[in-house]
Design a protein that fits this description.
The protein has about 375 residues and is of the alpha/beta class. It is built from 16 helices and four strands. Helix 10 packs across helix 11. The longest helix has about 30 residues.
């Protein structure tokens, strides 16, 4: 315990004298957490601009156009009968979509014939095009069911029968585990976790590289008489305490500020973060031992932030990656952390329900711990002090 106290005080003094470390460990995590969160705070796009080409100019087409405009997702900025004029606005990116009603649109529907409604989307932007398609499809299907209901009610006296014929298949959509259907609730929890990982790794790697740069490597390992893992854990204890505090702060404060769901168990999540940060400590200690200057360690982990995120299976499923990336993703702590994190936070599972998935983090702890042990044993034997 005395040696751990020495390590914590030593690390605190070293960090307080290094502006780069202060920026990385004390400012960057909070800044990025609130900065990224504020970008996605609206959660869903609203009032995506479209233009309507109404060649029918009927009561039904005008009613549908009004329903489009009343939707929170789209905004009708104009109604025209000239498709070429609408096309010019579309190609000039003034609107993200065009809805075109064909001639005799209402008449064809009343005669129970197929009516033609065309939707043109700017698919160079995924989110606006998806929002427009979802909103228009929902409104048209709802309106179509209403038209069919009126038709069947007019041709038969049985209202219940008319309702069944108007909607022969009634779809009930119920999300399992999560209730969100927006981009923010999907993306932001993963980003917050990535912020914790990368600032932890950057701070740890900078601190270790600085030991080489300032010729204090021998001093670091002399605290526990050149015992490798105790000295690594001693240095890492400061980062443990700091980042566990950050993790709990994100869950309590950031989740509340940005309206994110948390249905999990705090105790299970705390144990998960302990495993995760232990894995990061072993992983970061091993990688950082190859850098003799602080700036190089910082550049390496800053450069790998986005690749780590992409290969963690959060933005793109691991099953769809090639074999090489699948192997790399298995070696990245974030991959297994996200797997368990989602199950606890979103699915409400407990620690015992995720033991099999947590085992992968334990395997990585031993794997990177062994690599770090042999690497630092080699450096100590070699007598490295710079």
């Amino acid at each position: 315990m005395k040696n751990l106290g020495i390590h914590i005080l030593r690390e605190a003094k070293r960090i307080s004298k290094d502006f780069t470390l202060v920026l990385t460990l004390l400012i960057a995590p909070l800044f990025y957490a609130f900065f990224y969160g504020s970008i996605y705070i609206n959660k869903k796009e609203q009032n995506v601009k479209i233009i309507v080409v109404d060649k029918d100019n009927s009561e039904l087409s005008r009613r549908l156009t009004k329903m489009f405009d009343e939707s929170s997702y789209v905004e009708v900025i104009g109604v025209s009968q000239n498709f070429e004029a609408a096309k010019k606005a579309f190609l000039a990116y003034k609107v993200q979509g065009i809805v075109q009603f064909s001639k005799n649109f209402e008449g064809d529907i009343k005669r129970m014939k197929g009516a033609d409604l065309q939707l043109f989307l700017n698919t160079s932007k995924f989110l606006p095009s998806n929002d427009i398609k979802e909103a228009i499809s929902t409104i048209v299907m709802t309106a179509s069911a209403g038209v069919r209901l009126e038709y069947y009610k007019a041709t038969m006296n049985d209202e219940d029968r008319a309702l069944v014929l108007a909607q022969p298949v009634l779809l009930k959509d119920h999300s399992i585990f999560t209730s969100f259907t927006n981009y923010t609730d999907f993306l932001l929890p993963g980003l917050l976790l990535l912020i914790l990982q990368q600032t932890f790794l950057m701070g740890l790697a900078e601190s270790i590289a600085r030991e080489f740069e300032k010729n204090t490597f021998t001093e670091w390992f002399s605290v526990n008489k050149n015992k490798i893992l105790p000295n690594i854990f001693g240095k890492g204890l400061f980062f443990y305490v700091l980042f566990l505090a950050y993790a709990l702060f994100f869950i309590v404060v950031n989740y509340a500020v940005f309206g994110l769901n948390f249905d999990g168990d705090f105790f299970s999540l705390l144990l998960l973060f302990v495993l995760f940060f232990t894995t990061l400590l072993m992983f970061g200690s091993f990688i950082a031992s190859f850098f003799k200057k602080e700036i190089f360690a910082l550049q390496f982990f800053a450069f790998t932030t986005y690749p780590f995120f992409l290969m963690a299976g959060f933005a793109w499923p691991i099953e769809a990656m090639n074999p090489l990336f699948k192997l790399v993703s298995f070696l990245i702590p974030t991959t297994h952390m996200l797997e368990v994190y989602i199950k606890i936070v979103y699915n409400g599972l407990g620690f015992m329900d995720c033991l099999e998935d947590m085992l992968y983090l334990v395997i990585l702890i031993f794997f990177y711990g062994s690599l770090a042990h042999f690497r630092y044993a080699y450096l100590l034997k070699k007598g490295v002090s710079h």
